[in-house]
Design a protein that fits this description.
41% helix; 85 residues; elongated; three-stranded mixed β-sheet; alpha+beta; 3 strands
Amino acid sequence: MTAKPEITPRDKRIQSGGHKDADPDRASTVTRDGHRIGEPASLCRRRRFVPRSEFAAMSRTAPEISLTAFRADQDAVIRSALPRD
């Protein structure tokens, strides 16, 4: 097993996250004054294509909803977010 590269807060500011952009699977350790303070983790997930057949199979067990009630809820949220004249 190889040691994880250490990244200081100063290095992180200079690189502006470039160390994670170059290789998202590479692990690293953030240090401060030589003490380990954490390991950055990417919050972004890669999108995955879902075949139509798999989506249909998963959707069969989904609860039924009333389209009218759903639209009414959406309209209410939009109306409450719009500025009133």
